[in-house]
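Hey, resending since the last one bounced:
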Amino acid sequence: GEPWANPQADTNIATLIAAFRDKGLPVVHVHHHGTDPRDDFHAKAPGVAPQPAAMPLDAEPVFIKQGSSAFIGTGLTDYLADQEIGALVIIGGAANYCVESTARMAGNQGYVTTVGGDAVINFGGLLRDGRQIPAVDVLEMTLANLDEEFAHIATTNEILTQIAT
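The structure tokens again:
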């Protein structure tokens, strides 16, 4: 119910997933499942369902995480090594939580990492002093934190151009 910084993110996510599938490139999904039954992302809660734009196909691996990073406790690192995958394009949400945690770890582990800046979702934030930060500012700060230190930030069109060649 909260506004996203990227209202077109779900369209861009669907576009990128379709392009990867069309090119025969691997698509890997990471879903968050909270451990608290009261959590919106508990395995049995409605919030855990993937967005329609990012629905996995049967043949695509799905890793379940319980923390922010897709690399902690999921088997993702072993899967990527087994498949000899050294470059990642990270899309989805939320940008300032799971995307940022995963991109930082990917960069630190030596993966060539790209974050689709217009294919991530996030919401506004609340500072410790009670001030509200608009979603677009949270997103821009998150992408600035990642840019060139941990990942390359690219648009959907840039990623589409790169995978077309």
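The longest strand covers residues 112-121.

Sorry for the duplicate.
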